[in-house]
């Protein structure tokens, strides 16, 4: 992972990656002569990034190899995000660049995958005619057939949502990987109908993946040299899989334990938790195992109970604070991050102040923050007027960002002078003379290279100082 500013806009399952190119070559044993070349560019969340790895695996079995230059590709895919309007505009602009490349390379296939594909299929195919192929997040197995349709001269589309598809049997091709950290998708879809969110409409109903397939993927990753996995789901705490014809159910706490037991040297992270579902059983599992990272992303969205009700978050301010208090009690050293929306429909200045006050109470390690952006088709768009002026939304967002900067620095300063167990993830983006890696609480640390230790190893790092976003230290015995 790269060093990043810990004051974020967007959320880890919404806007963590903007235009990431997936360009790692397929494993050598699969390379054949005259393979068609595939280029994938991912926008949005970690789930999209994980899906792109599934797509690469499916097409690798069909004779494709991934490359890093779209101008040389035979097939160009954009894996898209519909969370915010500006993300959609960026994708449109990018498609126009791909269309220009297609003029220079006739026969190039351009396709849109993911959430925007499901929501804007007609516009892409018929109105703007920017693409040849549109595929929703549950239809990736159909890609070989759809590509063949385009090869035969037709436009192709499959955006059908599924109640069963989890891609559990597909081993993802690890793209743009540092060889140390990897994502494992444990479930798909979402049953929470948050009024501001398009995910239930673009990714379908919630379904959990067989725990044994998850454990096997984690074991395979460890055997391949990976030392950290992140379990992904829109709401991991609602993970539930019925085993043995329904006679036994595995919940998220039990899944966490199963993955932690793969090996003590395999770090386990997860994203994202929902305040209504995170249980003490999960918290005790985190506390029990050293290799389950002491870090929880717990989106609050708003600190005001009336606004939370309008958002259909199904918890209130008091419930959220009780969950935070439980985390602090059971896992005293746990890092907590969050998502915050400013200027939601009818939010008053006083209700915005409740968000600032809940930030003061929790003092988040970092946050993903953005002004409310109405998304077509959501419950909020149908029911409520987007009546907070844009200028006021931005003013409130500025207040939230400034407060979070203070809290992030406060948390970082509390880490200074302490020794942290860090997994070396690679070299610092600023210098090959420094390593970088994260501590248990997901805070990035930068420290001088020590020839005794290599990428993928754990080291003890004394934090000696900090910037506004990063701890700086040195390896100690």
From TrEMBL:
Residues 176-411 form the Radical SAM core domain. Keywords: 4Fe-4S, Cytoplasm, Iron, Iron-sulfur, Metal-binding, S-adenosyl-L-methionine, Transferase, tRNA processing. Its EC number is 2.8.4.3. Monomer. The keyword Iron applies. Its cofactor is [4Fe-4S] cluster. Residues 413-477 form the TRAM domain. One of its GO terms (cellular component) is cytosol. SMART domains: Elp3. It is an enzyme of class 2 (transferase). Residues 36-152 form the MTTase N-terminal domain. Catalyzes the methylthiolation of N6-(dimethylallyl)adenosine (i(6)A), leading to the formation of 2-methylthio-N6-(dimethylallyl)adenosine (ms(2)i(6)A) at position 37 in tRNAs that read codons beginning with uridine. This is tRNA-2-methylthio-N(6)-dimethylallyladenosine synthase.
């Amino acid at each position: 992972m790269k060093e990043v500013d810990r004051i974020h806009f967007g959320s880890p399952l919404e806007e963590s990656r903007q235009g990431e190119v997936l360009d790692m070559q397929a494993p050598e044993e699969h390379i054949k002569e005259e393979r068609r070349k595939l280029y994938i560019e991912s926008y949005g969340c970690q789930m999209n990034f994980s899906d792109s790895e599934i797509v690469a695996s499916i097409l690798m079995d069909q004779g494709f190899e991934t490359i890093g230059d779209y101008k040389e590709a035979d097939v160009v895919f954009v894996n898209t995000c519909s969370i915010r309007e500006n993300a959609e505009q960026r994708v449109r602009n990018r498609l126009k660049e791909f269309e220009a490349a297609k003029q220079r390379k006739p026969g190039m296939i351009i396709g849109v995958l993911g959430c925007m594909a499901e929501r804007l299929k007609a516009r892409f195919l018929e109105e703007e005619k920017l693409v040849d192929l549109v595929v929703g997040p549950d239809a990736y197995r159909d890609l070989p057939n759809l590509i063949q349709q385009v090869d035969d001269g037709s436009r192709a589309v499959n955006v059908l949502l599924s109640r069963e598809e989890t891609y559990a049997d597909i081993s993802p091709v690890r793209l743009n990987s540092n060889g140390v950290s990897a994502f494992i998708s444990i479930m798909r879809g979402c049953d929470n109908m948050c009024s501001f969110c398009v995910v239930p409409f673009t990714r379908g109903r919630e379904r959990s993946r067989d725990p044994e397939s998850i454990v096997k993927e984690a074991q395979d990753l460890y055997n391949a040299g990976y030392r950290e996995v992140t379990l992904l789901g829109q709401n991991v705490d609602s993970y539930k899989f019925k085993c043995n014809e329904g006679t036994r159910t595995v919940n998220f706490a039990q899944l966490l334990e199963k993955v932690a037991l793969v090996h003590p040297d395999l770090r386990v992270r997860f994203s994202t938790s929902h305040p209504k579902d995170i249980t003490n059983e999960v918290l005790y599992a985190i506390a029990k195992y050293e290799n389950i990272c002491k870090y929880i992303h717990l989106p609050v969205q708003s600190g005001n109970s009336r606004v939370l009700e309008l958002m259909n978050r199904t918890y209130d301010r008091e419930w959220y604070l009780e969950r935070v208090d439980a985390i602090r009690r059971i896992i005293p050293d746990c890092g907590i991050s969050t998502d915050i929306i400013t200027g939601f429909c009818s939010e008053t200045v006083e209700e915005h102040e409740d968000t600032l006050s809940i930030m003061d109470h929790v003092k988040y390690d970092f946050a993903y923050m953005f002004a409310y952006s109405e998304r077509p088709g959501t419950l909020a768009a149908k029911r409520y007027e987007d009546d907070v002026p844009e200028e006021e939304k931005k003013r409130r967002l500025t207040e939230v960002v400034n407060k979070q900067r203070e809290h992030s620095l406060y948390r970082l300063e509390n880490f200074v002078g302490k020794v942290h167990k860090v997994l070396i993830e690679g070299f610092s983006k600023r210098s090959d003379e420094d390593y970088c890696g994260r501590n248990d609480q997901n805070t990035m640390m930068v420290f001088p290279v020590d020839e005794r230790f290599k990428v993928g190893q754990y080291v003890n790092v004394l934090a000696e100082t900090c910037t506004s976003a990063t701890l700086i230290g040195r390896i100690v015995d």
